[in-house]
Amino acid sequence: MNQEKANVLIIGSGVAGLTTALFLNKAGIKCEVFEGSPSEKETGAGFVLAPNGVNVLDSLGLTTELNKYSYPIGKESTYNTDNEEIMSIVASGNKLFNNQLVTIQRHKLIKILLDKANAVGIPVHYNKKLVDLNQEHRGVKAFFADGSSEQGALLVGADGIHSKTREITYPTIKPIYSGFYGIHGISSSSLINMEMDTEAKTYIDFDNYIGVFISKSSSSPTNDLLWQFIGKSERKIPATSLELADRSYIKDWLLKQTKDWNNPFREILRNTEVILPRSIYELENMNHWYHGRVVFVGDALHATNPLPGIGASWALEDGMYLAKMLKEHGYRDAFHYYENDRKPMVELFKNASDNGLNELLESIETMRTVYGNQIDW
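== 2-polyprenyl-6-methoxyphenol hydroxylase-like FAD-dependent oxidoreductase ==
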């Protein structure tokens, strides 16, 4: 790609958007980021980063920052509601995880990426909500809700599961309710009578199709516990009873659902102030990851079941590999190779996880391939 003339417009300043911008900058390709929100907010709870995601941050020279703001997972254990261990995977020293499995709060990962973007001079524009785009012979033009517009050589849709970029480009591809809801929380280990150390714990209620994942996300005893509760609901729970509901209502509702649990989660829940509920949506596999001069990364492209904990790492990888291809090829070939090289692996893993955690765990070679993927810049 002709780096001197290119100007890539990136829609969305989340993990995928900022990572794409940083690697484009690293490749010498001019880019700008456009975010619909008025400013960067401390939204979302957190992520598990697998070795493939850690590798991307290392390639950006951000290992020190990652170690500062994240927490290692040495072991993942699954328990029943009576706190009896069902199974465990030792991550430390396990070739599957390559000794690199960490938990990090979302706003801290965004801070790491945004600080780096500011340091290298990448423009990040806020209050730029995309409303339309127009592909032209020599570029693409983005139109924003404030009446402004921007011309670029290419446009990257990094605007999440409810992507406006995708809605405009592929109007028939819409988010699909997955049949599950998720509730994230942040609590403090100093308030809990529970030893966590580097063990991440999952409690599953097989009779009621609910479960929760709990892990430390920093060495501090304050606001360091991340938890993610997932439940099954064939019919989508109305927003007034979930996303828009009072947080005390959500807490009481979860306490009722887990009233027979004999494990530490209820104590953690009682001591949780930050609660973030949402319905979980998925995307069908997209036939093409690009159209003309528009290409997609992250959840705008392949939002998937959150149980395997791979979404954030995929967002990081997407940005790195797309920029790598644009560094080495013209945009037509770059988009083709980006899709051709990543799509089969992503869809194989996504299909296995959509069919259930048991099938995913049985596909150990698939897990090893995905978690252990290492992109060479």
